[in-house]
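Narrative of accomplishments. A recurring question from our advisory board has been how the design workflow behaves on a single, concrete structure rather than in aggregate. To address it, we present the structure tokens for one chain from the evaluation set, followed by the sequence designed for it. No filtering or post-editing was applied between the two.
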């Protein structure tokens, strides 16, 4: 079960890095719960799709140095990684975008149900990101 969970998360992030949003979203349950870093909780694949559309408009990101862990029963997983990004378009309430590059440690926790991601909770240090893009 652990290997299945790890393989799912590897496929999830592989699709993200490839910009393959169809595969990325197919790996989610229809009622997926998304806990946005320092933000709200959204529910449903459509809400997640809208979030990703906004993210892909405002940011260009690749995730590297990935470490994935999973529970023995395969119902929970976690990932630690580094976000290599570029701030493309100003996001509401954040500093102006002018193509600033950033290098941001991050992590995520997952709940897995029926071979799909049922919950994802992302964490990163928003102040670190703000400091990086403000200085650039």
């Amino acid at each position: 079960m652990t290997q299945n969970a790890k393989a799912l998360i590897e496929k999830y992030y592989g699709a993200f890095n490839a910009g393959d949003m169809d595969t990325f979203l197919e790996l989610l349950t229809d009622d997926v719960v998304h806990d946005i870093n320092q933000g709200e909780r959204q529910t449903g694949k459509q809400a997640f799709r809208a979030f990703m559309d906004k993210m892909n408009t405002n940011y260009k990101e690749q995730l590297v140095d990935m470490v994935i862990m999973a529970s023995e029963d395969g119902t929970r997983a976690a990932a630690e990684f580094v976000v290599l990004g570029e701030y493309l378009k100003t996001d509401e309430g954040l500093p102006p975008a002018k193509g600033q590059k950033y290098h941001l440690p991050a992590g995520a926790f997952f709940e897995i149900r029926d071979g799909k991601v049922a919950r994802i909770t992302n964490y990163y240090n928003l102040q670190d990101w703000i400091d990086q893009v403000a200085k650039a």
